[in-house]
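Me: I'm a chemist; would you kindly supply a protein sequence with its structure tokens?

Assistant:
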Amino acid sequence: MAIDEKAVGTLADRVLGPEHKGLPPAAWGRTVRDFLTTAPHLDDFQTPLLTLDRSVLDANSAAMGAWAADAGVRLAPHGKTTMAPKLWAEQLAAGCWGITLATGWQAQLARSFGVGRIVLANALVDPVGLAWAAAESERDPDFDFVCWVDGVETVELMDRHLRSTSGAARLRVLVELGGPRGRTGARRVEDAHAVAEAVLRSERLILTGVGGYEAALADDRGPESLATVRYYLNELARLHRELADRGRYPGAAIVTAGGSAYQDLVVEHLAGLADEHGVRGIPTTVVLRCGAYLVHDDGFYADISPMTPARSEHPLRSAMHAWARTVSRPEPELALLDAGKRDVPYDKGLPVPQYAVVRGVPVPLGADAVVSALNDQHAFLRLPGASASDLPVGSVVRLGLSHPCTAFDKWRLIPVVDDASSTRPRVVDLVETFF
């Protein structure tokens, strides 16, 4: 599916300045393209810094693409993870079916870069956003846009807003199924059928399938969590089959689920519904919306993902790291680093110290080294049994991170290095984000 490569290419014309955290003053006043011709290295940048690893991004993209293709499902990665059109373009070029977004504004941003197929994994009830979606769909009949509905009231409100607009475009919607104590979504299949019937009664909406988010119902891979997710996915499959059997779909259907924690279960329970050519009935596309696979992490997803070394022949690796400098050694077993809550994610686990660079030489940290807390601009690195000479002021520590969604939103421009594990990584690209 298309993206405007020319629009994405213009990001290289961005003029760099002090608003771009971590970049050296030598980059200020240059464009991204011009600065990269100087072949900068990581040690030319300031700390704190977030980086991406080019080789790992490519490997993760290939692994996930092959895994989805083998399963017979499509990928529409959740773009809100990175909000980086350059990375979206790479994902689409690698064969992704579309891009998923969470809000009307995010969809508008993606559309401004020419993304041709958008799944809005949310109900769109904002009148301004609805009017935009309808107008854009009418302006470009090739624009493939679909959003969610999870209640009769939602359907009626959307229909009323759309009927107040000047155009005649009809928006395609998926009925969202949720679960008890979950997030959004009709709580029971029976409730979801009532939502579908409301869509069929509406003038400006078209029933196009079903969807949901299984990870809202569990947060680990324990037996109880896996059973909850399996039950939910079976209910989602049942909802789709019942709608199809009752003739409720006016055309082809979409079935979508999948964060980056239980995509193996999504394939196990939903991939069999895929029938894009309608050989067995309603043409049906099964879509996974995994958002974190491209970047992955060294925390939450490293533990829960089915695509870890212990669970997969094609494991994902973390492509993101933070680099923080030791600014104080006030106690023998404590180092203060210059990265804090403004720089690194902390909502799904604190950063993990991986190694230090002392006077240009990588050195291991003790096995007990741990980041115990973050302030706005400081990390508390505990070093049991260490002395000040083990990690002198000025040393740089590489940190593993958890949860890419809350890493990217702290950075306007993220350097991409050729190999984050090399002695002196070279910066080969700069990825711009939009938050």
